[in-house]
Structure formats: C-alpha cells, structure tokens
Fold this sequence. Notes:
Elements: E1 3-25, E2 35-44, E3 51-54, E4 60-66, E5 70-83, H1 95-104, H2 123-133, H3 140-154, E6 156-157, H4 168-174, E7 176-177, H5 179-192, E8 197-204, E9 216-225, E10 229-234, E11 239-241, E12 245-251, H6 254-257, E13 260-265, E14 270-279, E15 285-287, E16 291-296, H7 306-315
Parallel strand pairs: 6-7
Antiparallel strand pairs: 1-4, 1-5, 1-13, 1-14, 2-5, 3-4, 8-9, 8-12, 9-10, 10-11, 14-15, 14-16
Helix pairs in contact: 2-5, 3-5
Amino acid sequence: MPRFNIQHITTYHYQGLVRDSANQIILYPLKDKYQEVLNHEITISGDPLVDVHKDYYGNEVGNFTYSKPHSELIINSVLSITTSSKPLPVDDMFAEMQWQELARLQYQVPYIDYLKQEYFDGLTELQEIVQNERHSNVTPYQCALDCCKYVYENFSYIQGVTSVESTLDEVWQLKAGVCQDFAHILLVMLRLMNIPARYVSGYVCPNRNGMRGEGATHAWAEVFIPNYGWLGLDPTNNCIANETHVRLAVGRSFSDCSPVKGVYKGPIDHVLKVAVSVGYEDGTTNNAPLEEVIEAKPASSFSRNSYMRHMELIQQQQQQQ
C-alpha cells in the first residue's frame, strides 16, 4: 500500500492590484476503498472562507472569493494519501453479452453523459479506425486496451505543442500533445464504441520508473466494463491506472475537472504558474519547477456568457505532463 505526500501550488501573478477574485478549486482527492486520505490541507492567500460541495459527478468542489486588493494569489494544497491496488477485470463473460449490456446503458443516468461525443472534423476518420479496432468476438475490456495502445503508439508526447484551449481537431491534426490530449482522444474512441468513458484528473506517482507525467498533474480515462465497473486507462503511458495514480476528479472532459479556475476584476495581464512535488515512501521528493504557463485577459463581469466561459478556460490553464 504505497503512501504519497503531494504538494500542488498554483500561483497567479497580476500586473497590478486586482479584487473580487472568485475561484473554483477541485483539489480534493476522491475517497473510496482504493484511496485513503491521511491528511489534506489547503491554504489560500487572504485566508478566504471556502464553501465545499459535491458536484453532479461526485467531486468535492470548493468555491471562494478573495475580495481585498491583491497582486498575487497562491493556492497551496498539501496532501498525504495511501492507495491500494484494484483487482483487474476477470473478463470471462461472453463478448456478445457484454456488448448487449453496454447497449442497455445508453439511455441510463449517469452513462448518457459519458457516451456523448461532440462533432469535430476528424471524427469520420477516427470512426473508421474504431471500426477496425472493434470485433464482435472481442470483449469491451480488450477493445479498450487496444484503443489505449493505439493512442500511445500513434500520438507523440510533446510538451508545449498544445494547451487547454486546443481543440480535438488541432490534436488530431498534430497527432501530438500531452496527457490531457491523449485522454481526450481515447475518450472519443471508447464512446464511438458505445463504451461509457470519463475523464480523470489527478497525479501519477510511480517510484521513479520513467513514466510520463511522474510527479506532476496528470490526466487519463476511465472506462466502464460490464460486471466490473470503472477501470482506469492511461494512454500517455499505455497502462492501467491503478495504485500509482491518485484521482482528484472525474467528468466528461477537462472542463469538468480543472483543478483551479476563476475570474477577477482588475488589470488585464496575469501570469499563472503551477508546481507539483511528490514525496515518496523513502523520503525523497520529485519536484516539478514552478513554470510560467500562460498570460491571459480576464473577464470583467461575472455573467455566465460565452465570453466568460472562454476566459475561464484560459484562466484554468494547468501544466499537464
């Protein structure tokens, strides 16, 4: 049962004084028999009151407002957690029966949300690839593993070529990106097969074995397997996400799981920086340096219009590795 000590620091630097910084944080790890939170503390500049609730997907979500004028906002999450290995699917049920079971889930809550797929220009091409990957005598579990392998082998892992604003079209044309992009492509493939699939944000915490995204914020997918439940698949590393992956949140896509996002009133320029460090059982620490992520222009009002949503996406840019 590995234990990890994780520190996740988000820092906003503003060009001048800003106020009424309203933020949403999803930095609270999911709790179940495979993840036990030993200790978790979140400190925020100005010590604002954080209102915590559970959203539609079962994630703990915090909301706070820092009203006083400030030129910097720091959100520091310090987490101590143990993880346990989840048994893998036995996969001894006839493939046809499993596909029939999935077909019955198409119009059931909550699976409907995890089966919807928005159109993008590469969808037709990807549908043809998916059809070649799926065979009637192959179980959903095996198809999911094949899709995970396809993304790993056909997309290049290159940091900096995409951002949180990158569309599926851009990722598909580039055939490159980071963990967030790999997860989104895998979600498309699984949903095209009518397999419910959801996005997962969190951390990957292996013991220095060279996995991509080690000691940083990370993203992968979970697929629903009949007679089993949700199984994590990490296409960035072509592996099953298990005790080395710490889960923060699940949703349809990154927009449902962003660790930090918000709006504020004040000067238009800001710089967002993110750093994650993972402490291992032997006492050593894998540190990710605090790196400049993005400069952005905020919305000046709090109305939920399309411009506001666009700016929220810009402001939630995170270092995904």
